[in-house]
Structures are given as structure tokens and as C-alpha cells.
């Protein structure tokens, strides 16, 4: 049996450099989730060209762009932004960098006013772990793999 492709990550205590802040660009119809601190992003990983992850020299998630326009997001009223206190950075595994591109099931849902967004690229698992990347972005991990994000978007 072949292993399903997955984006392997580890969480690392945040040093405050990588807070990910979301912004929707109405001109390009791209949800940008990034850090205002300027640094190089020598590595990249993508999911079917729909989500592009930019990683710094230490393989930490520095930015990601969702290229699916807001008009295509499914409406889901019961999205609840999870609260957690401790902040982390996500470090992408070497095997993930080597693979670079992943073909994963992708789902994007938002509340009616688009202020809460849920991005998933695997099935919900009761063992999902919530990892705070900033006050407005929370990652979903499932067994050491990146499974999605909750985003609080100021629209």
C-alpha cells in the first residue's frame, strides 16, 4: 500500500519573527497570509498551484498565498476560530521540500461575510492539533502533517 502524499511539518516555538497576517487582495483575488518582516524565501511548496507556500532559509513558513478567489469559497456558517495561547512556527520537512508539489483534496469555506476562512487539504481527524501562528492564523496539524488553516480575515 502506497503512503498518501502529505506535507510533513514540525512545530517550533515561535521567536516572534514569523507571525502570519492575512490580507485579501481584491485586485488579484488572492488571499495573502504573510509576515511583514522582509526576508528571503528560497524554498517553495505548492498544492496543485492553488496554494503556494514560501519558506525561509530555515524552512520555516514565511508566507502563503491562496489563489482560489473569494467568489469560489463555499459558505459555511459554523466556522469557529480556535483559541490557543502558545505561538509556534511551522518548519517544513526535507522530504516535503524534495517533493515540492502536492496533489491533495482542497476545500475552502468561509462564513457569509468572509471574515472566517477554513482551508483544508485532508479529511477532518479527531486527533487534529491546533497550532497558533498568529492571532489571525491557526494551522491544523494531523499526525505531523499540515492539514489546513483557520484564518480570521479583516474584510
Strand content: 35-45%
Q: Write down the secondary-structure element order.
A: EEEEEEEEHEEEEEE
Q: Can you count the helices?
A: 1
Mean pLDDT: 91
Strand order of the largest sheet: 2-3-6-5-4-9
Which segments are poorly predicted (pLDDT under 50) over 5 or more consecutive residues? none
The rough form would be described as globular
By helix and strand content, what is the structural category?
mainly beta
Q: How many E strands?
A: 14
Rg estimate, integer Å: 14 Å
Number of structurally distinct domains: 1
Q: Estimate the helix proportion, in percent.
A: under 10%
Characterization of this structure:
The chain has 155 residues and is mainly beta. The protein has one domain (9-152). It is built from one helix and 14 strands. It has a six-stranded mixed β-sheet. The chain has a six-stranded mixed β-sheet with strand order 7-10-11-14-13-12, with no helix packed on it. It has a two-stranded antiparallel ribbon with strand order 1-8. The longest helix is centred in the middle third of the chain and has 6 residues, at 94-99. The chain is globular. The model has no long low-confidence stretch (mean pLDDT 91).
Amino acid at each position: 500500500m502506497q503512503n498518501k502524499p502529505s506535507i510533513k511539518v514540525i512545530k517550533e516555538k515561535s521567536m516572534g519573527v514569523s507571525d502570519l497576517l492575512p490580507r485579501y487582495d481584491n485586485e488579484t483575488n488572492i488571499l495573502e497570509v504573510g509576515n511583514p518582516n522582509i526576508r528571503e524565501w528560497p524554498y517553495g511548496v505548492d498544492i496543485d498551484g492553488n496554494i503556494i507556500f514560501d519558506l525561509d532559509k530555515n524552512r520555516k513558513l514565511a508566507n502563503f498565498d491562496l489563489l482560489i478567489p473569494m467568489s469560489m469559497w463555499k459558505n459555511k456558517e459554523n466556522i469557529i476560530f480556535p483559541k490557543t495561547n502558545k505561538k509556534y512556527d511551522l518548519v517544513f520537512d526535507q522530504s516535503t521540500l524534495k517533493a515540492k508539489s502536492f496533489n491533495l483534496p482542497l476545500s475552502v469555506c468561509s462564513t457569509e461575510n468572509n471574515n472566517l476562512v477554513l482551508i483544508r487539504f485532508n479529511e477532518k481527524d479527531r486527533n487534529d492539533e491546533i497550532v497558533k501562528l498568529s492571532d489571525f492564523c491557526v494551522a491544523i496539524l494531523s499526525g505531523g502533517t499540515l492539514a489546513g488553516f483557520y484564518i480570521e480575515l479583516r474584510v
